[in-house]
C-alpha cells in the first residue's frame, strides 16, 4: 500500500502520495507539493545540526517553527485505519 501524507497549508487540508525514493521526509514532500523552495531552509537546518548536540531538540524546533512560518499547521502520515473510513 502506498504511503500518503496529509497536511494543512494555509487552512486547506490536502493529501498527497509519498515515496522515500523522491523525498527525504514528509515535510519535504509537502513543501514540494506547494512549490516551496527549501534550499536555504535545508542549509540552515544542516548548520543547526552541526552546532547542536546529537538528539537535541533544536533541529526539531527549528523545522516546526519554519514550517509554521511557511503556512503549514499540520503534517503527518495517513494511518491505515484512517484510509478505510
Automatic annotation (TrEMBL):
Pfam families, sorted: DUF2960
Highest taxon listed in the record's lineage: Bacteria
Xref: InterPro entries: DUF2960 (IPR021343)
This protein's name: DUF2960 domain-containing protein
Organism: Shewanella gaetbuli
Amino acid at each position: 500500500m502506498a504511503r500518503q501524507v496529509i497536511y494543512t497549508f494555509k487552512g486547506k487540508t490536502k493529501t498527497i502520495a509519498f515515496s522515500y525514493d523522491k523525498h527525504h521526509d514528509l515535510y519535504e514532500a509537502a513543501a514540494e507539493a506547494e512549490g516551496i523552495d527549501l534550499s536555504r531552509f535545508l542549509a540552515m537546518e544542516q548548520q543547526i545540526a552541526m552546532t547542536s548536540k546529537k538528539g537535541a531538540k533544536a533541529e526539531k524546533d527549528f523545522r516546526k517553527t519554519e514550517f509554521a512560518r511557511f503556512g503549514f499547521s499540520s503534517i503527518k502520515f495517513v494511518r491505515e485505519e484512517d484510509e478505510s473510513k
